[in-house]
Each structure stands twice: as C-alpha cells, then as structure tokens.
C-alpha cells in the first residue's frame, strides 16, 4: 500500500453576514477545499498555501492553533490502494477574487450553514465544523 501526504486549507473571508468559506468543485464533481500533495522539503503550512495559490489564485494568512488531519483510503487509476493523510489549516483569504485551476470546474464562497451542506464528503464536513468552531472562539478574543 502506498502512502500519500497532502496539505489543505479551509480559507474564509469575513463579510457583514458572517464568515464565508471557499469551496472548490473538482472536475469529478465533488466539492471540497484547496489541497494537494506536499512537495519535497516544504512544510505542511507551505504546502497548504502553495495549493491555495495554485488552485484558487489567492493567498491567505494561516491562523495559529488549528491543525486537523483526516485519513482515508482510495484506489488509484491502476487499482493500487492508497492511504492518504491530509493536514488542514485555517486561513483568512487576502482576496475574494478566485481564479480556479484546470483541476476545478467551479467555486463558491458560502456562509458556514451553506458550506457545510455543500461539501461532498463527511470528512470534509467534519473539518469545516471544527474550523468554524475554532474561528468562533479565536476571533472573539
């Protein structure tokens, strides 16, 4: 079994109506977050920020104190079983203007209640719930 390590970011921007979260729609149709394989020599945070820039064309500032990992299994195109671990961080977007990569077919900025309904996979839903709870506590200080 092959092991893969990726980094991703739950990116948000504040609005008068509340925090909006960025979701990307992959070519396969699922909705999730900017994430991808870490490159040799980069930290998890560097990987998450690089993926955000590559996939959404924006930058963010990672907030200290939140790191959540999810692990899942999938089969690659050759049928080989892959164990994937994704490290997620939370960051405030530097811009609301998104330029998606060729890997994606759409994007949305959504309030928490809508975003948690839009994400495709339960693991992604769980990390969004934890990220929003973290932000609610962190930003009150």
Verbal overview:
The chain has three helices and eight strands. It has helices at 44-56, 112-118, 122-138; strands at 2-15, 18-26, 31-32, 35-37, 60-62, 68-75, 81-93, 104-111. With 141 residues, it is α+β, with helices and mostly antiparallel strands. The protein starts with a strand and ends with a helix. Strand 6 (68-75) and strand 7 form a beta hairpin. It is globular, with a radius of gyration of 15 Å. The chain has one domain (2-138): Nucleoside Triphosphate Pyrophosphohydrolase (Alpha-Beta Complex). Strands 1, 2, 3, 4, 5, 6, 7 and 8 form an eight-stranded mixed β-sheet that branches.
Supply the key terms:
141 residues, alpha+beta, Nucleoside Triphosphate Pyrophosphohydrolase, eight-stranded mixed sheet, 8 strands, globular
Topology, pairings included?
Elements lengths: L1 E14 L2 E9 L4 E2 L2 E3 L6 H13 L3 E3 L5 E8 L5 E13 L10 E8 H7 L3 H17 L3
Parallel strand pairs: 1-7
Antiparallel strand pairs: 1-2, 1-4, 2-3, 2-8, 5-7, 6-7
